[in-house]
Amino acid sequence: MSSETPSDEVRRKWLKPAIGENFILLNDVLSSSYSTALNLSSGGTFKILKQLDSYDDENFLLEHTTPTSTTTTKYLVKVHNGVESEDAKIIDYQNSIMTHLNLHPSITTTAPLLSDDGAPFSNHKLPVSSPQHSPAPLTVRLLTYIEGTPMAYKQVTPALLFSAGEYLANVDSSLDNFSHPASERFHAWDQKNTTSLREFVKYIQTPERQKLVSSVIDAFESTVLPDASNLRQGVLQSDFNDANIIIGASDKIAGVIDFGDSVKSWRVLDCTVAMAYAMLSSYGKTGHSLAASAAFLSGFNTKYPLTPTERMHVRTLVCCRLACSATLGAYSYSQDPTNKYLLLHAEPCWRTLELVWSQVDADHLASFYDLAMSPEANLDLLSVPDPTVPDHFQKLRTSTKRSFSDTKTITFVTGNKKKLEEVQKIMENTTATITNHKLDLPELQGDPLYVSEEKCKLAVAEIGGAVITEDTSLCFNALNGMPGPYIKWFLDKCGHDGLNKMLDGFSDRTAYAQTVVAYCSGPGSPIHLFDGRTNGKIVLPRGPLDFGWDPVFECSEGGASSAGLTYAEMDKSVKNTVSHRGKAFEQLKSFLETESS
Ligand SMILES: O=c1nc[nH]c2c1ncn2[C@H]1C[C@H](O)[C@@H](COP(=O)(O)OP(=O)(O)OP(=O)(O)O)O1
Ligand SMILES: [Mg+2]
């Protein structure tokens, strides 16, 4: 970028309004230009309540009171960036979009009030952030205010993102019947212009991240651009983020604001931009960024189905927006290095880009998004946590009716390494592949069957695919089955000796070990339980001490290789043939075989 012809992106920084707390200035502007709209001559009064967030403009909340009414009305005062202010066509463009959309029965947006000159805006010389350019001619608009809360201040749920997707789809359908000459313009945030990000890559702080962004740009150039003529065009809202979506009563979407970035571009971009922002919403940030984007996509696609070509590029285009946002954020920081907040703000965006572009397998993510657009899609299925392993989506695919793969992957959720070793051995050579998700499930109370079933419910919600959990009890017959599922605590607190001493007053030292395995093929599917038990007695510890109460449980079942030995004294492979766990998992194996045949 040469210094003689600074880009609009550069000038937008210089010409950002800088009124800030100086409400007196604004009062003058409004009194001189909007006295009719605010009926100041007949006793109307107004007050600027506060400044609202804005990226390149300045927005203020105004409260208006008329002498005849006890209620107040809120309005938004928008002071436009100097770049847009220079171009009356742009302001007219935004006003036309709002007027057009407000005619749609299920869309609400802000609408401009007329100034004393009869225009939907007024112009004033006002301070801007660059002292050399201040004051600059800026456009001011008085807009109606949509009652509600920006989604950014809400606890976002997949259901809310789904309805936001539907809402944007309605907006886009309506904008398919809208045209305006000013919509045809260059905008750095328009992902059609992703290659123009190249000049900003040098502002990115680390070489790794520079490489990351360059690789997204390269992919865009080699895969998306050649398809450009097959992508539908239309006027976009272009910035459907959680600050621009207003949530009203009972968590319904009350409206959309801000057409400052609106351009005519590829239709699919409105959806992919919003998907990128969904990833950064309060739901996305809880480790559900992919689920958040899928929920949005699913909602959008039900009302505005994407074409096969558009579908193919969803992942890349989402990453183009993340890359754009992160890169231009780095550029903003280079212009204002005292503003560490800019770096902080960009961090989730970088992390998400790293996840989506580098860590998650591209084909897997593509089929996840396909699933979001399929008739089988439902929010339970899509609400999976962000993966920590590349083949995460395999679990999801196997839990749907679609035949993505022949072998079933089941996640064994346990916090116990020794259990996992045994189970992997037991499940060797079956049609199911067992992966593990290490999670310390809560130690629930109650009957072993109940505990195991509840663990499974928690696990399936966490994994979103096929899961196994198990709960193991050690039951003393003299104590009517106690400690049972509480054995973990008894072992922790009392040790092997303590377990022995508990039986000292009793003649009966027999016990049985019990594992209840719970299996569920995915969210919404029933839970199947398998109960395995082995008899034995409690003895002083014999054998290695590496697994729980194995050294104090002397097995009384099987042949010479097991009966009379503690579990700890047995060969591991022998333990599996007689153990409580071995028996329970054998039942699961036959269940899975009949299920798949
Ligand atoms: O074959 C076994 N041989 C000896 N000890 C065993 C065995 N199987 C479980 N144990 C121990 C581990 C824990 O102290 C308690 C069961 O509690 P339990 O909640 O099922 O296990 P856990 O909390 O270690 O793992 P998880 O994350 O799957 O719940 O008995
Ligand atoms: Mg446990």
Distance between the termini: 65 Å
Structural class: alpha+beta
> Which range does the strand content fall in?
15-25%
Average pLDDT number = 91
For this structure, what is the CATH homologous superfamily of the largest domain?
Aminoglycoside phosphotransferase (APH), C-terminal lobe
Q: Give the oligomer, counting copies of the same chain as homo and different chains as hetero.
A: single chain
CATH level-1 class of the largest domain: Alpha Beta
Give a quick account of the main beta sheet: strands, pairing sense, barrel closure. 7 strands, mixed
Supply Rg.
32 Å
| Number of separate helices | 19
CATH topology of the largest domain: Aminoglycoside 3'-phosphotransferase, Chain: A, domain 2
Q: What's the number of extended β-strand segments?
A: 17
Report the CATH architecture of the largest domain. Alpha-Beta Complex
Helix content: 25-40%
- Unreliable stretches (pLDDT < 50, length at least 5) are 400-406
Bound molecules: 2'-deoxyinosine 5'-triphosphate, magnesium ion
Shape: elongated
- How many independent structural domains? 3
Catalytic activity: XTP + H2O = XMP + diphosphate + H(+); dITP + H2O = dIMP + diphosphate + H(+); (5R)-5-hydroxy-L-lysine + GTP = (5R)-5-phosphooxy-L-lysine + GDP + H(+); ITP + H2O = IMP + diphosphate + H(+)
Cofactor: Mg(2+); Mn(2+)
Domain Aminoglycoside phosphotransferase: 55-277
Binding site for ITP: 414-419, 455, 471-472, 547-550, 575, 580-581
